[in-house]
Amino acid sequence: MRAGELITTDLQGRSGDETDIQRAYSVLEEVMDPEVPVVSVMDLGIVRDVDWADGHLHVVVTPTYSGCPATEYIETAIREALQGAGFAFPKVSQRLDPAWTTDWITGQGRERLKAYGIAPPVGSSDKRSLVSGVAQVTCPHCGGDETEQLSEFGSTACKALYRCKSCLEPFDYFKCI
Amino acid sequence: MTKYDDLTEFLLRLGDSALVHAQRLCEWTGRAPALEEEMGMMNVGLDLVGQARNWYEYAAERIGDGTDADTLAFRRDERAFRNLLLVEQPNGDFAVTMTKQFFYDAWQYHLLTALQHSGDERIAAIATKSLKEVTYHLRRSSQWIERLGDGTDESHQRMEKAIDTVWRFTFEMVEANDSESALASSGVIPSLADLPEQWLATVNDVFRNATLTVPDAPSTFYLSARTGMHTEHLGILLAEMQFLQRAYPDASW
Ligand SMILES: [Zn+2]
């Protein structure tokens, strides 16, 4: 038995309801991605489910990339944020299926990425756009359309490195997967 | 020598190939020809370590007795590894590295495409996830093969030499296998009968654009990942990769 399991419910005997779930979601809106600290786990679309079971809040997340080093960090951050909000022993688990897609990044998430200097994914993640050539990406700095890919991989696996031909600035592009 | 059931052996083949290939990529840290390429190789390696972990976790659950993904990666000897002979080969120059990468990516791409439709849901989920990443890996390595093959005289010549060096290990990717056929007939995975042809078609397409010649089909020889009979290079790679966990078992930070 792990330490937290001595606590039989998250809310001192009171069973959780829909209001608590909504409250949990608003906590999750504030849990930021460690590598792109302007987007939350909700913006990224990696929270797949929030529900009650056996007196505990259960949060299901999906990893962005198989080897994403932020996955464990994010799970811990979610647990700590929920504990800070009064959920005594929330449980966080991982689900692979269905696989995460950049289509799940919210409109707000895309705006936040752009404001941070990262071009959001272009188009939808169907197989065609993956195999066929390089996406037409807009520069997040000046809005110019004349950009070129420098490398298929940028500072992290989820990004490619681009350069703007108008303002000449390099920038990260959040790849469509 | 422990030989596991067909499915566990198959999972180890996938996991070990990803991990050993990733370990080779790490050797380029600080030595790649350009910063962009270094980041590219490290990110591909990271994807593969993640994929290896997913396959290992499944294999470990099947093996039981307290085995976990770390035990499989760091506490097994050379003879227990089921990785393709190709991926344990030394990096050589950038042409050899990219040739290995391309042959492996093309194999992963077609294999994972098939495995997405596995009867075993866990395999299907890991394959679907991994394929998204591998599609980018294959796109990158194909572009490099074309750029190097159809580049300067020097790069073309080095590509020919690289193909010469590693082609003989590709027999493993195109040989039929009884235990995989058994897994397919029991509905765990789809039939992989078309895999050799698909792999070769991708190699043909990319080599044509790269002005490179595809050699004759390689012949099987006595070494085989399936029996744990590796080339002399794997032991040295493992000695480095496993050092910490061997010297300080259960070390953590
Ligand atoms: Zn610009």
TrEMBL record, chain A:
InterPro entries hit by this protein = Fe-S_Maturation_MIP18, FSCA_dom_sf, MIP18-like, PaaD-like, Zn_ribbon_PaaD
- Classify the source by domain of life: Bacteria
Domain MIP18 family-like spans what residues?
24-83
The UniProt entry, under Pfam families, shows: FeS_assembly_P, Zn_ribbon_PaaD
Q: Which parts of the sequence belong to the PaaD zinc beta ribbon domain?
A: 126-175
Q: Which PANTHER family match?
A: 1,2-PHENYLACETYL-COA EPOXIDASE, SUBUNIT D-RELATED (PTHR42831:SF3), FE-S PROTEIN MATURATION AUXILIARY FACTOR YITW (PTHR42831)
Query: What is the protein's given name?
Result: Phenylacetate-CoA oxygenase subunit PaaJ
Originating species: Marinomonas piezotolerans
Q: Which gene encodes it?
A: paaJ
From TrEMBL, chain B:
Cellular component per GO, a single term? cytosol
Residue ranges of the TM segments: none
GO biological process: one example: phenylacetate catabolic process
Q: Which InterPro entries match?
A: Aromatic_CoA_ox/epox, Ferritin-like, Ferritin-like_SF, PaaA_PaaC, PaaC
The residues forming the signal peptide are none
Name this protein carries in UniProt = Phenylacetate-CoA oxygenase subunit PaaI
Q: What organism is this sequence from?
A: Marinomonas piezotolerans
